[in-house]
């Protein structure tokens, strides 16, 4: 994969915009992402394709805002699976998202 | 940097919401946040933000529906909605535009692009609200203008109502607001039972075209009621307009005097389309051509008040119109035109002249247009018209009842001066004579023109037997008057009170030896002019006799106490 796990330039500009509230932004993102993953798990378990699509779409948006390009890429694939209602690959994609998110969280929580 | 305003952010993702609101508030705007579409609509109603950033997919109510509702709530006001969605999602893009979205912003958010878009949208919003303000201002101005026109029209109607446009022999077509297109139509009875009709067309439109109408109407009604000739009325109108109107504003006009007991039509036309006099007897037509400059252009000394004179008979019709008639156009923008109008007039039956022209115009243009005036005057028997009586003044002023006076009018005065209005004004100081004003004016007109034309100028009324002779008579009259070196007309008045009321005796003599005895005795209607006039005197006066000594004519009119 050529996509970086975390785009440093995006994070730089986020720091610049958020200033003191940068840690709050990271915390909000991490917290919100866990909620998204929970929604995705539920939607896939229920085989609810539109719900998969919406949750993946929303998650994709915030990932791209936070510079988590690789994670955004997995979300996009899952969103597409939801849009076309072909959920066969969904559990595998969800596993990839969970693993990638764990890695991103570690990076974000590491002291700078 | 655009002016600070309130921005509503509707986004269900907390991190994105935090990021966006931080960027927007750092640009100096107040931020409201909503987590779904329903919240967004509610916040919009409460806070009326100026701009909305709207995520497309949200729980409870999505961004498309929320946008539709917000746009509806905003009404006339422009509230830009920027959708937070990627431009690569074609389907969402179309739905966003359908819902009323104005722009898009894709993730990841870029501070600079967001700022530029906010700025552009707020400028557009400002422009839109300027347009709205100006629209409202124009509406207000227009209402104001219409109110002013209504007021001006009400004032004008009060002046114009002194007239007799409602007389049974007049028919006309004119929009109630024609005044503001510069068209002016006036009609009034003369004291001797004739009629003056004025059709004018001021240059320009709106209030500037209407202001000149007021003084014209006052001059017209005031002088007509006092019995001034139309030449006098025209001179006064011209002078007044010349004095008050700015250069380049003037009034094209036709003024008619219909003398119903002498059956004479006097016409003056300055700049108006040539009207038509149509004979009932044989359907022949005379064009009432413009031979003068419009009113309000030339100096008093150069003003030509010369009128054309036509003999008329009962049933003859006169049709006048303003430029708006030939210039009216149909839906294709084609003009009605002078030629079409003349053909229409020529082809119409005599009794239907007015109706044919009016119907022809309406069939052509499809609707009544505001800026045209059309008027038809029929020559009728004087007795069929309501006779105007002079209002008795309410004052308890004492009338002069016992007096006599005598006036001599000599050559140079006879050339340039019509003494009748002044004599009338003096006579009507006797309040009790006011109900007889019409009778007195008719008598004075008759005896004065008789003394002037036959006694002083030596004209032979036998000339007036036919239409050609008629024109020749008036031509000759004018020539002889211009060359007049000597001669005089004497008018003496004697008023005395008596047991029943009072009596006014009018005595007329002239340098030509007065009225011949045989003329006074001729009482038959077959004699063309004098016979008719003198028969009238016998009808109107209580007594009428010739003094053998100087050939003077004496007329006595009595009045009685109520």
Textual characterization of the structure:
The complex is a heterodimer of chains A (112) and B (562). By secondary structure, chain A is mainly alpha-helical. Chain A has a single domain, classed as HPT domain (Four Helix Bundle (Hemerythrin (Met), subunit A), Up-down Bundle), CATH 1.20.120.160. Chain A contains five helices and no strands. In chain A, helix 2 (22-45) runs antiparallel to helix 5 and helix 3 (49-65) runs antiparallel to helix 4. The longest helix of chain A has 24 residues, at 22-45. Chain A is elongated and about 40 Å long. Chain B is 40% helix and 22% strand. Chain B has 17 helices and 20 strands. Chain B has helices at 14-26, 37-47, 63-74, 90-99, 111-160, 206-211, 213-225, 230-244, 324-327, 338-347, 353-365, 411-416, 420-427, 437-456, 467-483, 517-521, 530-540; strands at 6-10, 30-34, 51-55, 81-84, 103-105, 170-174, 183-189, 195-202, 251-259, 264-270, 275-278, 285-288, 308-311, 317-321, 373-378, 403-410, 488-497, 501-510, 543-546, 553-560. Chain B has a five-stranded parallel β-sheet, with helices on both faces. In chain B, strands 6-15-14-11-12 form a five-stranded antiparallel β-sheet, with helices on one face. In chain B, helix 2 packs parallel to helix 3 (63-74), helix 7 packs antiparallel against helix 8 and helix 14 (437-456) packs antiparallel against helix 17. Chain B is elongated, with a radius of gyration of 38 Å. Chain B starts with 5 loop residues before the first strand and ends with a strand. Chain B: This is Response regulator receiver domain-containing protein. Chain B: Pfam families: HATPase_c_2, Response_reg, SpoIIE.
Task: Set out the fold topology.
The complex is a heterodimer of chains A (112) and B (562).
Chain A: H1 8-18, H2 22-45, H3 49-65, H4 69-83, H5 90-109
Helix pairs in contact in A: 2-3, 2-5, 3-4, 4-5
Chain B: E1 6-10, H1 14-26, E2 30-34, H2 37-47, E3 51-55, H3 63-74, E4 81-84, H4 90-99, E5 103-105, H5 111-160, E6 170-174, E7 183-189, E8 195-202, H6 206-211, H7 213-225, H8 230-244, E9 251-259, E10 264-270, E11 275-278, E12 285-288, E13 308-311, E14 317-321, H9 324-327, H10 338-347, H11 353-365, E15 373-378, E16 403-410, H12 411-416, H13 420-427, H14 437-456, H15 467-483, E17 488-497, E18 501-510, H16 517-521, H17 530-540, E19 543-546, E20 553-560
Parallel strand pairs in B: 1-2, 1-3, 3-4, 4-5
Antiparallel strand pairs in B: 6-15, 7-8, 8-9, 9-10, 10-13, 11-12, 11-14, 14-15, 16-17, 17-18, 18-20, 19-20
Helix pairs in contact in B: 2-3, 3-4, 7-8, 14-17
């Amino acid at each position: 994969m050529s996509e970086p796990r975390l785009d440093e330039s995006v994070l730089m500009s986020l720091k610049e915009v958020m200033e003191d509230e940068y840690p709050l932004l990271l915390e909000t993102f991490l917290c919100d992402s866990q909620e998204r993953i929970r929604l995705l798990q539920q939607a896939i378990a229920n085989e609810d394709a539109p719900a998969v699509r919406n949750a993946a779409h929303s998650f994709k948006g915030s990932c791209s805002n936070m510079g988590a390009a690789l994670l955004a890429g997995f979300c996009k694939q899952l969103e597409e699976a939801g849009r076309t209602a072909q959920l066969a690959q969904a559990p595998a994609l969800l596993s990839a998202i969970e693993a990638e998110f764990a890695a991103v969280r570690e990076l974000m929580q590491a002291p700078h | 940097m655009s002016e600070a305003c309130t921005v509503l952010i509707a986004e269900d993702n907390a991190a994105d919401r935090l990021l966006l609101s931080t960027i927007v508030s750092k640009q100096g705007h107040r931020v409201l946040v909503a987590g779904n579409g329903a919240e967004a609509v509610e916040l919009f109603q409460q806070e009326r933000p100026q701009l909305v950033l709207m995520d497309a997919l949200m729980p409870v109510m999505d961004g498309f529906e929320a946008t539709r509702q917000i746009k509806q709530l905003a009404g006339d006001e422009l509230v830009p909605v920027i959708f937070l969605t990627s431009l690569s999602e074609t389907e969402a893009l179309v739905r966003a535009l359908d819902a009323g979205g104005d722009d898009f912003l894709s993730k990841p958010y870029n501070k600079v692009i967001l700022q530029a878009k906010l700025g552009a949208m707020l400028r557009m919003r400002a422009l839109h609200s300027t347009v709205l303000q100006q629209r409202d201002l124009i509406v207000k101005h227009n209402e104001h203008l219409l109110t002013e026109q209504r007021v001006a029209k009400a004032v004008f109607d009060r002046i114009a109502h002194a007239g007799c446009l409602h007389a049974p022999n007049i028919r006309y077509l004119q929009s109630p607001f024609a005044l503001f297109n510069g068209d002016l139509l006036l009609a009034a009875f003369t004291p001797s039972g004739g009629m003056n009709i004025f059709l004018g067309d001021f240059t320009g439109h709106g209030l500037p075209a209407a202001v000149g109408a007021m003084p014209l109407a006052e001059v017209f009604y005031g002088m007509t009621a006092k019995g001034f000739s139309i030449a006098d009325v025209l001179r006064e109108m011209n002078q007044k307009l010349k004095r008050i109107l700015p250069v380049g504003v003037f009034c094209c006009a036709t003024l008619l005097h219909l003398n119903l007991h002498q059956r004479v039509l006097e016409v003056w036309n300055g700049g108006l389309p040539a009207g038509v006099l149509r004979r009932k007897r044989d359907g022949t037509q005379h064009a009432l051509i413009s031979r003068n400059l419009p009113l309000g252009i030339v100096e008093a000394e150069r003003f030509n008040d010369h009128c054309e004179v036509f003999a008329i008979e009962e049933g003859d019709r006169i049709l006048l119109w303003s430029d708006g008639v030939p210039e009216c156009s149909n839906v294709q923008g084609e003009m009605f035109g002078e030629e079409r109008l003349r053909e229409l007039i020529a082809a119409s039956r005599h009794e239907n002249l007015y109706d044919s022209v009016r119907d022809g115009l309406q069939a052509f243009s499809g609707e009544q247009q505001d800026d045209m005036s059309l008027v038809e005057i029929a020559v009728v028997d004087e007795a069929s018209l309501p006779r105007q009586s002079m209002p008795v003044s309410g004052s308890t002023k004492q009338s002069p009842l016992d007096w006599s006076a005598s006036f001599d009018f000599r050559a140079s005065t006879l050339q340039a001066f019509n003494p009748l209005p002044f004599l009338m004004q003096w006579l009507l100081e006797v309040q009790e004579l006011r109900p007889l004003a019409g009778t007195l004016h008719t008598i004075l007109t008759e005896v004065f023109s008789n003394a002037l034309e036959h006694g002083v100028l030596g004209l032979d009324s036998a000339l007036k037997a036919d239409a050609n002779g008629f024109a020749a008579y008036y031509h000759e009259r004018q020539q002889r008057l211009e060359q007049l070196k000597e001669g005089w007309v004497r008018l003496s008045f004697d008023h005395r009170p008596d047991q029943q009321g009072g009596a006014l005796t009018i005595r007329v003599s002239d340098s030509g030896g007065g009225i011949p005895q045989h003329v006074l005795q001729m009482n038959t209607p077959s004699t063309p002019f004098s016979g008719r006039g003198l028969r009238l005197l016998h009808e109107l006066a209580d007594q009428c006799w010739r003094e053998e000594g100087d050939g003077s004519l004496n007329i006595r009119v009595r009045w009685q106490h109520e």
